[in-house]
Amino acid sequence: MRRHRGLYLSAEILTPVLVVVVILLATNAGKTFFLPPLQNVFVAFGENWLFARIPVDVLPSLARLAVGYLIAVVLGIGFGVLLGRSRGARRQATPIVEFLRAVPPPALLPFTLVALGIGDGAKIFLIALVCIWPILLNTIDGITGIEPTLRETGASYRIPGAARLFRIELPAASPQIFAGLRASMPLAIIIMVVSEMMGATNGIGFFIVQSQRSFAIADMWSGIILLGILGYLLNLLLTLLERWVLAWHRRSHAIAR
Amino acid sequence: MPQRTLALAGGGTHSPARRALQSTWHGISSLGGTVAVLLVFEILGRTGVLPARFLPPPSEVIVTLVQLLAGGEAWAAIGLTLLGWALGLGIAIVIAVPVGTLLGTSEFAFRATRAIVEFLRPVPSVALIPLAYLIFKPGTIDGKVFLAAFAAIWPLLVQTIYGVRSINPLQLDTARSFQIPRWSAFARVVVPGSVPYLATGVRISSSVALILAVTGEIIMGAPGVGMQINLASQGGAVPEMYAYVVISGALGLGLNLMFAALERRVLHWHASQRGVRP
Amino acid sequence: MLTLTNVSKRYGDEQTGTLAVRDLTFEIGGGQIVTIVGPSGCGKTTVLKLMAGLLEPTTGTVTVDDVEVRRPPEQIALVFQDYGNSLYPWMRVGENVEFPLRHRLGSKAERRERVDAALGSVGLAGLGDKYPWQLSGGMQQRVAIARGLAYQPQILLMDEPFGALDAQTRADLEDLVLQVRERFDITVVFVTHDIDESVYLADRVLVMGPRPTFIDADLVVELPSPRDQIETKALAEFSRVRGEVYRRIRASSELMRTGSVAVA
């Protein structure tokens, strides 16, 4: 396998380069108006996102995303713990929760637009509403999945309620909770983008739609690329956070193997 | 010397009939909470505490729902949504499974394309909506199929790659040592081994495809449940809008249950994998 | 002083539940080491959990110092068999040992002292900054014992604590239990399925009967102190008690396997 290493590495670097070159040539040669020459897109990207429009569009988008997501995190974990602890409550809540999470998120979009307008509040509300389910469900799984011995140890040493929650239950459930956080992130981005496309005065989604309507296609593509980068960075952020918080989990499992 | 007899553990003195009754009660009682919540909303709506234009009483929504279903208008929309979903999922399967298999088996292909996949994956498919506007005629099914397919490809691709790569090389070596030809080993070792992952992938992709299909309908005006929601909302027919939201939820739930059942059947022999609940 | 009076335990309801414990009445106290031994699956762990206040008896009472036990009482500390899930992997060793103390002792300095002393007495001095999973199984179980000791209980309940460890480690830890009892003068209740272990450690052996369990025999062990893995086990008295225990357990196991019907 050793001799393949160099081959793999060069493939890994060269193929994207090759692809970019091909796209460059193809978009310059063919004249489809929705695929502008690649260099124009790069130029547009530089003009827009480095760094002129960041305060105008990127920050508002990120702010809505952050607030909506955080609300979902707090409520999702909070209710997740409550439901995780009580089998009765879980049984009652299951039909409602299962149904609500099956509703495709954009289904509520027209309504919130009409009911709550196009302000930030509406978008934040919708982001929170959609993102709460994976977090809630994974928190429930995390709490119910706690090893009985772990619980019994806490009970036998009479650990009081608050300490039990914050120093035993939440840490024990945290790997599963993080899985939920990771699953919610792409949803948050989707809702943010879609809500901005349907009704907003600023934001990345708004920018993309505006560009499309005014046929500034290179700008439109620059926005799409930005969203991809954003999605990647947010996911990376979350992964790094998870690695830091769950270092004990990774290492303890590695050793146990 | 104490009694050296043994008591039978507990002993079931219950008849099957009684047990059946108990489990039915069990099932019904878990709906209790739901019924209570609906009742609360009913009262809040009727007494005017909750403005009806935001949240009509559930009974109105239910009545409207029944009317729509009985009258037949809802079915056309449902059919169109499902059509878009099916096409999107189908295209995703046709593309993701072969490509995923290739990337899973060939280390070279995997490494070569890794950067590209990692770059394209985080792009939210909804970002392509304006692009779809440009490419496809508005109001047709093509745009939403494009979106649904694009979005559904990724989870399936990732799962297929995982599935193929999860095959223990030892199993393949064993086949090889028995002189089993590669294509046969592929069919009999790789395929069955990766099917559980594929099943999970299809389930996730299915739900993604549905979401994008509905999104496409809402935003791009393609006919279907999503468009009905939009029309109802804009026309102020709030109970009707909620009725369609319920329908979309039911579709989501139904498809999910169907694929989950499929997944269970396929997975029943496989070591159960604890995973993320999407 | 831990007292059980006519304790029984049934899981589930009257009709369909399983009777796990039939009738227990005994007293434990005064710095004794009492071992509880019985055939596999007879319900030893249930008995321990009843004593620890983790389970409520269906009938009868469990009292500690004449106060009825409804939840885990202050005077008792537990050491579980599954140390992997009993020690918290997200806390360091020192933090694990300190954790139960946070709500009993005021100052950080006091707690620190106790933690250090406890770790020292189990031979783990200086390892407070490590994570449990960085230590071997035997050492992890020592941490669990240290945690119990730092708590300064009257009674230490141990549920097959060395079952998951190899023979050599087990021997070392058995001697540790004896030392700990000497040093701190606590009462130890030790559940095990290892017959040799049960006799080696004990001042008193409670042999449990088959399910639903009861006390088949309450044997006083008159072996000299301090005990030694080689010397003590070579004594005639050791063989005698061991034989007695083994005989009873073998008969009970037989009964559990073949079974016979009686009124529940």
How would you characterize this protein structure?
The complex is a heterotrimer of chains A (257), B (278) and C (264). Chain A is mainly α. Chain A contains 11 helices and no strands. Chain A has 2 domains: 1-30; 36-256, Orthogonal Bundle (MetI-like fold). Helices cover 84% and strands 0% of the residues of chain A. Chain B is mainly α and 278 residues long. Chain B has a domain at 79-236 and 247-267: MetI-like (MetI-like fold). The model of chain B is unreliable at 1-13 and 272-278 (pLDDT under 50). Chain C is α/β, with parallel strands linked by helices and 264 residues long. A 10-stranded mixed β-sheet of chain C has the order 5-4-1-2-10-9-3-8-7-6, with helices on both faces. The relative contact order of chain C is 0.18. Chain A binds chain C through residues 147, 149-150, 152-153, 155-160, 163, 167-168, 171-172, 174, 248-249, 251-252, 255-256, and chain C through 49, 52-54, 71-72, 74, 76-78, 80, 82, 84-86, 88-91, 99-100, 102-103, 131-134, 147, 151.
Topology (SSEs and partners):
The complex is a heterotrimer of chains A (257), B (278) and C (264).
Chain A: H1 2-29, H2 38-49, H3 54-85, H4 87-102, H5 109-116, H6 120-144, H7 148-156, H8 161-198, H9 204-213, H10 217-245, H11 247-256
Chain B: H1 16-29, H2 32-46, H3 58-71, H4 73-105, H5 107-120, H6 129-135, H7 141-165, H8 169-177, H9 182-220, H10 225-234, H11 238-267
Helix pairs in contact in B: 3-11, 4-5, 4-7, 4-9, 4-10, 6-7, 7-9, 8-9, 9-10, 9-11, 10-11
Chain C: E1 2-11, E2 18-28, E3 33-37, H1 44-52, E4 59-64, E5 67-68, E6 76-79, H2 83-86, H3 93-98, H4 108-121, H5 137-150, E7 155-159, H6 167-184, E8 187-192, H7 195-201, E9 204-208, E10 213-220, H8 231-234, H9 236-258
Parallel strand pairs in C: 2-10, 3-8, 3-9, 6-7, 7-8
Antiparallel strand pairs in C: 1-2, 1-4, 4-5, 9-10
